[in-house]
């Protein structure tokens, strides 16, 4: 399979948004439910938490599959190698952390204690750091984005056209 042939739909960028949103929303619901003593909010937080853990699993899995696919060489490959390493293994670590939290949470019959909420907060911070690193990879370095090269080529062609128009207008004004 070749990414350039557009035969593969990449799910990692789609799944990332669900993982971030669901884990963050679960954390907010859990904390508000804890502080307000609202069991309904904590039940909703529990549901969002488990949906977020599933989304994290799908996100990490789709990222793993995507990195196995052949990609065209990028001018930034040497610069992003270390960042990709941290992003990949950080994702495995965050997923493992949330799986442990999910096992603990499955065994609880009462609302989660503060210690679990603090651990979940640490996990969500890890998810947010992962999102930041992924954003840097995409928006700063163009990792996994085919259109970056196309847009830069168009921009170069546009700049060349403007320069040639400027030269021709200067040549015409010099003739007068």
The gyration radius over C-alpha positions equals 23 Å
Strand content: under 5%
What's the helix count? 5
Q: Which regions are unreliable across 5 or more consecutive residues at pLDDT < 50? A: 1-5
Q: What is the averaged pLDDT score?
A: 84
In which range does the helix fraction lie?
A: over 70%
The rough form would be described as elongated
Describe the structure.
The chain contains five helices and no strands. With about 180 residues, it is mainly α. The protein folds into two domains: about 140 residues; about 30 residues. Helix 1 runs antiparallel to helix 4 and helix 2 packs antiparallel against helix 3.
Give the arrangement of secondary structure elements.
Blueprint: H1 12-36, H2 39-68, H3 77-107, H4 114-140, H5 147-175
Helix pairs in contact: 1-2, 1-4, 2-3, 3-4
Q: What's the gist of this structure?
A:
81% of the residues lie in helices and 0% in strands.
Which structural traits does this protein have?
disordered N terminus, 176 residues, mainly alpha
């Amino acid at each position: 399979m070749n990414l350039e042939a557009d035969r593969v739909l990449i799910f990692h960028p789609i799944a990332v948004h669900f993982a971030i949103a669901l884990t963050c929303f679960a954390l907010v619901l859990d904390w508000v439910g804890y502080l307000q003593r609202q069991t309904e909010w904590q039940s909703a937080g529990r549901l969002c938490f488990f949906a977020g853990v599933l989304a994290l699993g799908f996100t990490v899995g789709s990222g793993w599959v995507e990195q196995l696919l052949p990609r065209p060489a990028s001018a930034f490959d040497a610069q992003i190698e270390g960042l990709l390493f941290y992003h990949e293994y950080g994702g495995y670590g965050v997923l493992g952390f949330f799986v442990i939290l999910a096992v603990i949470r499955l065994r609880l019959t009462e609302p989660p204690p503060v210690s679990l909420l603090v651990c979940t907060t640490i996990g969500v911070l890890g998810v947010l750091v992962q999102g930041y690193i992924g954003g840097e990879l995409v928006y700063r370095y163009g990792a996994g984005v085919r259109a970056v090269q196309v847009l830069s080529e168009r921009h170069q062609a546009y700049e060349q056209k403007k320069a040639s128009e400027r030269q021709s207008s200067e040549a015409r004004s010099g003739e007068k």
